[in-house]
């Protein structure tokens, strides 16, 4: 990357420009489920800003995007809901060397050997599910990490998210009176394809109606466009508003919600946890009926984690959902408390991001003449 600014004034001017751009992209991404730039371009701006702030720490204000989680809720009309425990983002690394450096530091801070819970980083959107007495009380988007949008009414149409937990086998762990499970809502690749097939069918039906009314073919508007990518489609589906929709539109909205999936990947507030590792929590959540990713692994050594990262990178598209990296977490919960967190991210976890793929679908579409 280009050299850092030499003096404070130049640095400030560049940091301001970067902040303005990042804020604009974030608002579009989190509030409108639209990407104005690719994730890789966004990450590059973010990292340039981080590097400038490291060199000129006086520039780091509380409102710098590097100090914040997501974006404050720009209301689509859902009630606001405060998380019982804050939701965080993750720090990123972009190379295996950077990953090893992070792991070494984390292990040094822990003061002992640790186990590494390694997971696929699902390209979806974060959600918090609060259960009271085994019943889903609220489902909330991450928002700014403190307050999100209460989207419970929509989540009730997602079949894989249980409204009531299953007490599990006799002798199994008791469900606490209250807990928050954190996870990622996503659209599986096959569901994304099916949804787009449905859009084309709807458009064809609409076009036939228009033709019957005598509208010339080149004047028929596109009412049901293709969805651009699975992540933004999942985000858009989840934040649809039922208000002012007619029966037909409601049916389509529920159809879109019904196709969403979820994997749980964390815990928030939890009364009297009686387990020692995050992977134990996953096993319990799975017993109670919450979907947990089958792809997670626990490793004893950093070399094994690196092997996992490399292997999964080669088989990125063999997974049922889009992934944009690997999340590595220290498995022992005791160490989570010990290592703590920054204003934005835990110190006991990191996201390794894969380099962007070279073939962009838009280019491919042009080449194969769609
Ligand atoms: P992030 O996506 O880098 O990492 C944090 C999130 O990862 C968590 O909140 C969680 O929701 C998710 N996650 C997925 N799988 C997980 C797992 N197994 N364990 C734990 N968490 C998991 O950070 P972010 O703050 O959500 O967003 C920043 C990223 O969003 C950027 O790096 C970029 O990729 C994208 N973004 C893109 C644009 C754009 O315009 N293209 C704008 C804003 C953000």
UniProtKB/TrEMBL annotation:
Residue sites binding NAD(+) per the record: 39-43, 89-90, 119, 142, 184, 329, 353
Superkingdom of this protein's organism: Bacteria
Ranges annotated as spanning the membrane: none
Active site: 121
Record-stated family: Belongs to the NAD-dependent DNA ligase family. LigA subfamily.
Function: DNA ligase that catalyzes the formation of phosphodiester linkages between 5'-phosphoryl and 3'-hydroxyl groups in double-stranded DNA using NAD as a coenzyme and as the energy source for the reaction. It is essential for DNA replication and repair of damaged DNA.
Name of this chain's protein: DNA ligase
Organism this protein belongs to: Leucobacter soli
Parent-protein start and end of this portion: 14 to 383 of 799
């Amino acid at each position: 990357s280009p050299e850092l600014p030499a003096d404070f004034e130049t640095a400030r001017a560049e940091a301001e420009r970067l902040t303005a751009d990042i804020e604009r992209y974030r608002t579009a991404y989190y509030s409108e489920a639209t990407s104005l730039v690719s994730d890789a371009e966004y990450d590059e701006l973010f990292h340039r800003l981080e590097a400038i702030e490291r060199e000129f720490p006086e520039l780091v204000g509380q409102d710098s995007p590097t100090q914040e989680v997501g974006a404050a809720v720009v209301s689509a009309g859902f009630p606001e809901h405060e998380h019982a425990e804050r939701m965080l983002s993750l720090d990123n690394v972009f190379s295996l060397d950077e990953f090893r450096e992070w792991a070494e530091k984390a292990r040094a801070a822990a003061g002992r050997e640790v186990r590494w819970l390694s997971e696929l980083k699902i390209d979806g959107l974060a959600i918090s599910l609060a259960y009271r007495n085994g019943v889903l009380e609220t489902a909330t988007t991450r928002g700014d990490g403190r307050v999100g949008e209460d989207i419970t009414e929509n989540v009730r149409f997602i079949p894989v998210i249980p409204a009531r937990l299953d007490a599990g086998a006799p002798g199994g762990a008791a469900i606490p009176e209250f807990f928050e499970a954190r996870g990622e809502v996503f659209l599986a690749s096959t569901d994304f394809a099916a949804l787009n097939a449905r859009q084309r069918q709807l458009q064809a039906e609409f076009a036939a109606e228009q033709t019957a009314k005598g509208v010339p073919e080149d004047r028929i508007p596109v009412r049901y466009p293709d969805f651009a990518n699975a992540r933004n489609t999942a985000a858009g589906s989840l934040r649809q508003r039922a208000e002012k929709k007619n029966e037909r539109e409601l049916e389509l909205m529920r159809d879109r919600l019904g196709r969403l999936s979820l994997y749980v990947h964390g815990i928030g507030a939890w009364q009297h946890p009686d387990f020692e590792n995050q992977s134990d929590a996953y096993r319990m959540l799975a017993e109670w009926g919450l979907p947990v990713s089958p792809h997670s692994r626990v490793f004893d050594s950093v070399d094994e984690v690196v092997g996992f990262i490399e292997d999964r990178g080669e088989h990125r598209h063999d997974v049922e959902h889009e992934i944009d990296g690997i999340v590595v977490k220290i498995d022992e919960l005791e160490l989570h408390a010990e290592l703590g967190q920054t204003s934005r991210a835990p110190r006991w976890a990191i996201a390794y991001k894969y380099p962007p793929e070279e073939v962009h679908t838009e280019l491919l579409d042009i080449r194969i003449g769609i």
